[in-house]
Batch of 3 targets.
Target 1
Amino acid sequence: MNHSNSTTNTTEAIGQNLIKLISNICFSFFVFSVLIFTVIAITYQPPDPWLQSAPPFTQLFTQSQNATFHVDTSIIKTGEDITLPPQRAPVTELQIQITEDKIDNSTSPIPSAACASGTLNCSDPRVLVAVQRFNLRAFRFIVFFEYQRPVNGSGSDECDVAWRFRNKKEKSWRKYRDFRRFKIGITDDCRYKVVHAGGWHSGLNARRNFPRATGAGGKGKNFPRISNNLNRDDEINDTIPSLGSQVNFRNGKYLYYSRGGDYCKGMNHYMWSFLCGLGEAMYLNRTFVIDLSMCLAATYNPSNKDVEGKDFRYYFDFEHLKEEASIVEEGEFLRDWKKWDKNHPKKRKVPVKKVVTHKVTPMQLKKDKSTIIWRQFDAPEPENYWFRVCEGQAAKHVQRPWHALWKSKRLMNIVTEISGRMDWDFDAVHVIRGEKAERKDLWPHLDSDTSPDALVEKLKRMVQPWRNLYIATNEPFYNYFDKLRSNYKVHLLDDYNELWGNTSEWYNETSLLNNGKPVEFDGYMRVAVDTEVFYRGKTRVETFYNLTQDCKDGVNTC
């Protein structure tokens, strides 16, 4: 009996100890799991929003071109396409009515004498109220900002009005300008109303006059007079920032990248590398030295040759970059550096840290006190690509500042002009042909699926007849889309070539940047403008997924 009780007690003790052991193990596992999760949460940093993983794109930029994957140069994306703006709810009829009621309640009817005579006074604030009310209903996809006071039009019943606006599909916060002519009538209750509205930039009396442009020095060089079609944008400031005094230069901290293997590569490659350097400068809290002289890759040129000496400001918004990042132009920087070393004894020369390999990480340079960190890219390709600096562990610390790189405002003004001439009421189709249509091994159906007859049949099912139809394309033959003209009001980029011709504002302003020499409206600019107009279409039809069954990147890549 005693032996039986002793055995029972021993079994119970073992069972209790086993339960305690299991409990301790489970608790330890829980604590360890929480610790691991906490470490991950603290150390994790999200990747760049456009290019989600650096290694695949490193492989893409460094691999040979015999792979089936081809970089799509028919669509150009920059920071304003990647950084999402605050979402705006669509404007409803009730919201329009509430806004109109506020406008109407802020003004009184026309005095009875003026109402009876039908006399129009364009400076009367009630005229502007009528125009605002009309615009709210006519252009629901436009955000209106400040209006200017109306001025007399060409007739006694006409007023010209100018305002600043932004299309709701615009992903930057830039403003554009329109001026239109309105025929004004009077309602039965003695209020002004818009009887007829003119088209884009029809209100010539409301546009501002600008003097004839001169050369960079202000004397001696005259350029073609500004066209009436494009209003000069006085908000563009492409001036190169100055470091000021020698003391300011010496007190600064700079990150200087010498030219590497990225030069004359594709624009996507250029942006990927440029933003790596700019991101490292931000991480190190230094001013980035920017070389404004670019090389446009052969893929964007009809001659199929690389073109050097292109100005960064032709393609990107330099003013916005200056606002978002600390930068200095390379020529200005080198002059100040040389001047300092020339004017000071050897012991007081500028401290320079030379870095000869991308394997020296930004983290290793974080505490460096040198005035200039000079990264030199003299190794053979692909070791001399700028973006190699941001690979590996550096990718967790250096974030590419996509928000700082926008398309050129001058190019965007052309986009706005084209869209405005179609009264912002158009559909768009993106038709990719060119080399891809010829490569039957990679895109076997693309040529036939984008033939004129095929386009007519397919677009009938997607776009209403007689709509404005903008065609963004790399097809070189202008008359290729003539069969569509029997169903649609067809618009192509070349229909607007006066916007960059030798009487245009774009031509005049880019010539100033190029020391008075004309600038070619090159293949990259065409793609950038085509892309942005396409994005503003109400109905958008893509080549891949809509017009052809082929995969975008070649066979077996869908």
Note: The chain has three domains: 93-206, 246-407, 409-547.
Target 2
Amino acid sequence: MAGDKLIVLDALDKAKTQLYHFTAIVIAGMGFFTDAYDLFCISLVTKLLGRIYYTKEGAPKPGTLPPNVADAVNGVALCGTLAGQLFFGWLGDKLGRKKVYGITLVLMVVCSVASGLSFGHSANSVMATLCFFRFWLGFGIGGDYPLSATIMSEYANKKTRGAFIAAVFAMQGFGILGGGIVALVVSSAFNNKYDPPAYKVDAAASLPSQSDYVWRIILMFGALPAALTYYWRMKMPETARYTALVAKNAKQAAADMSKVLQVNIEAEEEKIDRLAVEPSNSFGLFSKEFAKRHGLHLLGTTTTWFLLDIAFYSQNLFQKDIFTKIGWIPSSETMSALDEVFKIARAQTLIALFSTVPGYWFTVAFIDYMGRFAIQLMGFFFMTVFMFALAIPYNHWIQKSHRIGFVIIYALTFFFANFGPNSTTFIVPAEIFPARLRSTCHGISAACGKAGAIVGAFGFLYAAQSQDPKKVDAGYPTGIGVKNSLLVLGGINFLGMLFTFLVPESKGKSLEELTGENEDENGDISEQTAGARTVPL
């Protein structure tokens, strides 16, 4: 095997950590900052949108988004993301990672700004234009998932590849945190300027007309970090693995990586031509050979991501509703519109600061020591334990003296989601599939995750409604309640733990070792595939 390995790929695998690695992390990571900011900041402003556009004069409580509108506003970006993951994942394998990478960034920046400029003469028209732009925003975000993961995996050395991909994904934590901080700053600034009273004191005055600017500023701000990295994203060379193994251009691959690594690398045109005709480098996604080699792996990456995102997005998008139900966030009529935004943002920021962000960076620190399999299994296990710990004694937690305990355990579920499957489900699909199908398979895995997110976003909204018809939110049918919803999420996390056994360990192996690429007919393929066994021994 060693003698058959392309020099350019061997050089990448053995390269010491250097500036270009960190440059790639920042460039790809800023896209993920925007991804997370834009996907999760909507949960900060949905209560405000309900007050602005759906409050009825003389009502005892401020307005809320009707169920169908709340479904659309919360879920439309996820639908766009699912479509974008499939489309751009496929396109990244057809046209190359770099060519498609710029398109996704432009789409994110433009639609992020456009979301904040949503217009119309009625509530329905404003919500319609907001949903239109958020769908296409999600479409661009979807493309960033497979492309960022694939680019980082193909640039990294094999020793620290897991940490580098995890560091890109960890910017999602800063995006969630950034959304909370921006909402805190903007709502505080407007609150100090206009000082509105609580709704029950003066309903009309509790919602200054300038509040309409607040949600727009929060939504638009996410475009800034991504826009600042556009120039550097366009300057990145195509990855050597795509250029050599997919485009079959040995000279360009050697020239690009000679410049990046600052060493002279020989172009091996004859070896690439020889490898190109080998069966291990030519089977397609829907072939029997793919099913034999990678079928169970793809089943593992898709199911675990699907199950994870049901729980993860349910928790993230609706944590404000859970905190309201346990009393950590006061009832809406006791606050002004701006004060409500501030308190929701404060809760999200605290959860992000003390559990979400640390969880991501624990993964960065330990993934190349513990391995992907162990971290994912551990994460699902503790998410299951903590969900049941919240659900079973739920009536205990909603008592005022026990609310802090509820928040701490709830925060731990976020910590182990991120020091666990939320990170590893992103990393592993970028490592275990062949270069010509890598972006596509990552896109399929990620799209299954977003299907789970859609189930979580739409399902939890209804499921968490009270079983008592008198206590449900306006316009909703009765549900199974928060307690039973948490029990269901605990069961979903347990299923994720079981499906983790289908996912191979990729720690310490080169991408070509994992996929069986880059070897001619004399290469020991059986040894390759045996090395990528599902459960580490």
Note: The chain has 24 helices and no strands.
Target 3
Amino acid sequence: MMHTQTKANESKPLIGWEEAASSEREKDCVFSGPSDSMASVGALRFLFCLALCLCNFLPSCQGSSHWHENKYPFIRNASSFSSPSISTTTSNNVYDYIILGGGTAGCPLAATLSQNYSVLVLERGGVPFTNPNVSFLENFHITLADISPTSASQYFISTDGVYNSRARVLGGGSSINAGFYTRANPSFIEKVGWDAKLVNQSYPWVEKQIVHRPTFSPYQRAVRDSLLDSGVSPFNGFTYDHLYGTKVGGTIFDRFGRRHTAAELLASGNHEKLTVLVYATVQKIVFDTKGKKPKAVGVIFQDENGKQHEAILANDRHSEVIMSTGAIGTPQLLMLSGIGPKEELQKLNIPVVLDNQFVGKGMVDNPMNTMFVPSKRPVHQSLIETVGITKMGVYIEASSGFSQSNDSIHCHHGIMSAEIGQLSTIPPKQRSPEAVQEFVKNKRDLPIEAFKGGFILSKVANPWSVGELKLVNTNVKDNPAVTFNYFSHPYDLERCVKGIRLAIKVVQSKHFTNYTMCDKKTAEELLNLTVKANVNFIPKHVKDTKSLKQFCKDTVITIWHYHGGCHVGKVVNPDYMVLGVDRLRVVDGSTFDESPGTNPQATVMMMGRYMGLKILRDRLGKLAGI
């Protein structure tokens, strides 16, 4: 039996009430002068508004405020850690589980395991709670545009030339992504061999805590109607489930545009048994190599002041180091710890613990191409809310508008902002930091109308093009070299062409032209609007497949759904234990050979909860109560 739709997940019509909620909030926060006769209700309203405004204007540096300490007393800076020596280890300073990475999978995993065992989480970034660039939908693009060493996102450029990002903050990708929440295709659950009953327990555990129903903007309503008009049917209403047709999914942004990340799931853990260290950069995993197989015994990490510490596992065969550092971080850290292709490790003078040629192999990123939707009316900012799930191997999504907040980058394109490297106006190999800055400079001359529209996003599902990850040095803070080989397989290119043709139909739909108040444009006009004049080969006709293939190659960007590098059967076994060593497990998207569903975060969070429950059940049996 596959996972089924819960009662709270039934298809229902959507009502756009976000404007009313927003104006209500603004109305409530208009302060008048103090009065001796102010009623107690007025005083309470004033205090509520003051608190809300303070939340909206918190300093932008990660973890700079300590208001979260009451709810999360187990989170503290890495420098507070007291490293035990091996000769003095006691039950108070060793851990049953050490989780590397407090991300989308690591947080629910830690919360679950802490119900019965001592857990240490080591996260290289800070907390998301006090960072407005992380917390608010309107500032989504700012974190991705921030390339400073303390940013919540760490940008990297694949060898293909496509800009990308990896999380560097508690909550991981859920702290910097577009927020869309949708479950995996049932066939994915079956393929990876997960227990459907446990899956059905794990998804709702996440959803009840941090997932919301989107406010559903008029732009997204036009997307829905245009998808249906273009044949992407039926309409499945609001649902978390992966169903062919058009649907509206969940979001981790609430009705006020505030983000709720995987970090909030930590609050449901056992506070007495859970320790979360932020600004803790793991350098390597420590192994005991005296036995028949190498055995993980602890990790070495660096705190925010540059001091090194060692965290040690309890002397129990069930204790584990669990890697949840993501599709980039996990294969990178495995190799830095001595597990990977022997010849590559030796080139960098890394002592070889285990020769495994498959670490870092099978890296995949879902290529995305877009279609600009011009509009004569201002468009409210929205990220992904509506999705078209087709049977031809592409997903159609949409984003719109730009923010006008004081802290914002003015006149940006949201998900498609050049500031975050989504520079589809230049072929990948020509993209560079200088090219981005040049575009940002020149766009000041663009008319404001150029930023009133939105984009239709076409994503290739389950790409067949495969790449790899390699170390460039032994500094864990530096990005490894990552290659995705976008469109190297002809099947991916074939599906991209189909996706672009569908995106053109969507934009040409009467529902969009009525909403945007723009005349229906030809396919050639839409393509030219999308790429401007900078692309090296502009399609001359929508039926020219060769031209559309070139369009796909030249305008490819990412939607940040990369995965792979530690595949089941090659690097880990079906329970995600690392092959050839003891007490080391991987729980993250590096084990996937396809991205689950239209957007993976729901399943990655579910995986953290699921694996936590499974580990408890396997270790405690009936005593686990699962």
Note: The CA atoms of residues 239 and 407 lie 34 Å apart.
